[in-house]
Each structure stands twice: as structure tokens, then as C-alpha cells.
């Protein structure tokens, strides 16, 4: 294969508001720092899949995001996390659903890549963590616990928690901040991979399954790779990630595929965002939400989508 500059794009959620200016600065620093580290790994020759796992680990370690450490609590006060991983060159998907007490849910999805059974939930996920000899890890932060306690005192009136970390004194932001984390990489050999990891929407019914560990939220092949964020049920209803990938595979440009897909989503009243890469190196994103928290590395420069106009549906660089 002819080697070329790798490409990386990551996301940390989508919603209707970034809130305080200080939060924007902090999020930008985190996103830029992480995308630079992932790019450095790709530039050193690592495979797209390994770079995706590495990037998801970095984001799962940041309490700014709703994945791994800092995940939101479900209605019973427990954290249950999900993650999906897809190697586009092998067109192989693996996922973990509603796993508890692990540091990096993406590691379980990665472990399942060569397995005959590649998507596991709750009991199976717990057994897999024991099989991998993973040390028990408590992902609950003080902020998330206080958020849950405040919602419990209010009889859980909010439909979801505030899944991009803010301050406990800003309850009005709860419905405005939602999402997952995701990483998409095109490596030096032209291979694509994608990973998505989430703590869910928070305060949800026990057993609820997010889109992240499904091909609606995480999908890749040799032509394109997509990771989604936002309202999981909306993402599943649109089969968002795979719809975009199939359109690119069938010959549409990434620009056209995003424009058509997000135009349909807007007409259907959906609330979400997505990041994407094509095998041609096109870095792309789309959103129906006002804000998409994404950053990318072109090989020459780092950019982000944090202050894009709310009327901008899609972008390609």
C-alpha cells in the first residue's frame, strides 16, 4: 500500500449549549490534546484500530466526557457503560453493552475483535472482565454522584443526565449536554477504524441499550467510517452510521452522503451528531444539534467544530 498522511477525528458529545466560556476553553484543550496524541501514534505507523482504541482510552480517562471515568449514573445510581469498535479493513464489529466497574470499556470491545461471539451484554460483559483479569474500577466522580442525588431529590424529572461534565450548580444545562465519545482514524496504509464509548444518557431505565455498541452508532468498511453521538434512540431510528457508510460505498461523495443523511434527519426531527472519515482522507462531520464537540487532525493542522454556527448541518475538510 502507498503510505500517506494519517487522518484523525474525535468527538465528545453533541447538544444545544456549551454553557460557560470557561468550559469551551477546557473542552478545546482536552480535545486538541487527545487528537494530537492519537495522530502521533498513527504517524508512527500504528494501525487504525490500535489508534482508535488508544484514543478511546484517553477520552475514557477524562472526567470531562461521558465514557469510562466520569460516566453518568443510571436511575438506580449505578454506572453501566457500552462501547463499540469496528475495523473497516476487516469489516469486523465488536461491542460491549452495560458493563460495570471497568476503566476502559473499549478494551473489552477490542478483546472481542477476534472472538466468535463479538457483542456481549451485562452478565456476559462482567464474565469477560473477569476472564481478562481486569482490576475493578469505580468510574463514579463526585460531580456525577451529586448530579444523580440532585435528580433523585427532584424525583428524576429530567429525561437524561448532563453528559458533558459541567458544574453541579448548572441544572439548566442538563438537557443541553449529551453525547458519547468517539474516535475515527485513517492510518498510513489507508485502513479505517472507528470506536465509540458511552455511559449512556443517564437516569435511564435499567437494561436500556445505547446505539454505541450497534452498527447504527459505530460502523466502518474500506470506504468510510462513522461514529455517532446524541440521542441514541434517534441514531438507531435513522441507522445513522451505517447509512452514511453505505452511501459512500455506493459512490456518493462524503459531502453528498452527509448532506442527504442529515437533511433527512432534520426533517425527521432527530437530535444527534456524527464524525466521519473516507478512504480518500476526507474528514467530515454532521449535526442536527446546535453544538458538536469534535476535533480533527489533517496531518498539517488541528481544527475543531466547537464554535460552528448552529445552522451549519455538515462540514468536510
Question: How many discrete domains?
Answer: 1
CATH class: Alpha Beta
Shape from CA axes?
globular
Topology order in helix (H) and strand (E) letters:
EHHEEHEHHEEEEEHHHEEEEE
Main sheet overview: 9 strands, mixed
Site (Cleavage): 179-180
Binding site for substrate: 208-211, 229-232
Protein name: Isoaspartyl peptidase
Active site: 180
For the structure shown, list the relevant keywords:
317 residues; alpha+beta; 5-stranded antiparallel β-sheet; 8 helices
Describe the structure.
The active site is at residue 180. The record marks 179-180 as: Cleavage. This is Isoaspartyl peptidase. Substrate binds at residues 208-211, 229-232. The chain is an alpha+beta fold. The protein has one domain (7-316): (Glycosyl)asparaginase (Glutamine Phosphoribosylpyrophosphate, subunit 1, domain 1, 4-Layer Sandwich). It is 30% helix and 24% strand. It has eight helices and 14 strands. Strands 1, 2, 3, 4, 5, 6, 7, 12 and 13 form a nine-stranded mixed β-sheet that branches. The chain has a five-stranded antiparallel β-sheet with strand order 8-9-10-11-14. Helix 7 (240-249) runs antiparallel to helix 8. The longest helix is centred in the N-terminal third of the chain and has 23 residues, at 21-43. The protein is globular.
Briefly say what this structure is.
With 317 residues, the protein is α+β, with helices and mostly antiparallel strands. The protein has helices at residues 21-43, 48-60, 105-111, 122-131, 142-153, 232-238, 240-249, 254-267; strands spanning 7-15, 81-87, 92-99, 119-121, 177-178, 181-186, 192-198, 218-220, 224-230, 272-278, 283-287, 291-297, 302-304, 314-316. It is built from 8 helices and 14 strands.
